[in-house]
Amino acid sequence: MWILSKRRIIPGGDTDKIELDTLSCNSYSGVHPQTDKDASLVMLFPNKTNEVKDLTIFELLKATDNFNQENIIGCGGFGLVYKAILADGTKLAVKKLSGDFGLMEREFKAEVEALSTAQHENLVSLQGYCVHEGFRLLIYSYMENGSLDYWLHEKENGPSQLDWQTRLKIARGASNGLAYMHQICEPHIVHRDIKSSNILLDDKFEAHVADFGLSRLILPYHTHVTTELVGTLGYIPPEYGQAWVATLRGDVYSFGVVMLELLTGKRPVDMSRPKTSRELVSWVQRLRSEGKQDEVFDPLLKGKGSDEEMLQVLDVACLCINQNPFKRPTIQEVVEWLKGVGTINRNQNKDP
């Protein structure tokens, strides 16, 4: 059974743009400050750069207007995300979790605290959490510009505001965040749901990978093998349908799809398009095999002096979406290749 999630993170909380899927949204009700327990401190992690030193449930309720629907800025398989504005003007993003918790409360706290050690400039910072009377909240840094998905596919004139250098910066930043998860932080983290709506953008359009580790918190797990895999149509590696094993190289495949989105401006799956071009991966691979790779690029990007760089990134993306997981690069190799884009000749790069 696949758990498919559709999630939008939208600047300013434009609820008209949010698609609320039933998995996330049916179980929500307001939380009312009725007891003295509501004044208890939310657990905030040390060594954070944010100015929030202490926080109570009551303050969090006030900051979200008691989790008012008007403050929803995102929705997905893991829960709703609310914009919170504290009394001093500080903005936070608060995720109210839903789903089947395979962990007891003490284990949940331990897992969250472990995730809090994953600190990198290209990850969305987990500021704290609260387990209170049956509901669980995760508190994150607020990302001013919402998600990459929003800018590429939802916002009017959004794609035209993402020039090639901005898109390349986003790809590089997201790859750095993913490389940190895969190779540096302990324990290593398999994201399992890399997609454009899980790449959030700050006010300078720096990329931050979001929702990492949440599948460990919510779904039953045994090492890296599970009978239920989180994923989103169009990003799911082909091997997941055969072995149901979430791996680092599965994340690399999904990131390759995100790079194709940046290059083409198209969604991974679009049923409104002709049958031969509905699935982005197969469409790009077909055109590339026919020697028509120039036709895959977003018309907004073509002919502006960056075609050679886009071809280099296309090469990297196509390595990532190889049907054979063992022929995909590691994310660290992707980081190095993206870093070299524009500084080396395309023929020097590894040939997919």
From TrEMBL:
Keyword check for Cell cycle: no
Catalytic function, reaction form: L-seryl-[protein] + ATP = O-phospho-L-seryl-[protein] + ADP + H(+); L-threonyl-[protein] + ATP = O-phospho-L-threonyl-[protein] + ADP + H(+)
Domain of life: Eukaryota
Keywords: ATP-binding, Glycoprotein, Kinase, Leucine-rich repeat, Membrane, Nucleotide-binding, Receptor, Repeat, Serine/threonine-protein kinase, Transferase, Transmembrane, Transmembrane helix
Subcellular location field: Membrane
GO molecular function: ATP binding; protein serine/threonine kinase activity
Family listed: Belongs to the protein kinase superfamily.
The protein's name: non-specific serine/threonine protein kinase
Organism whose genome encodes this protein: Gossypium davidsonii
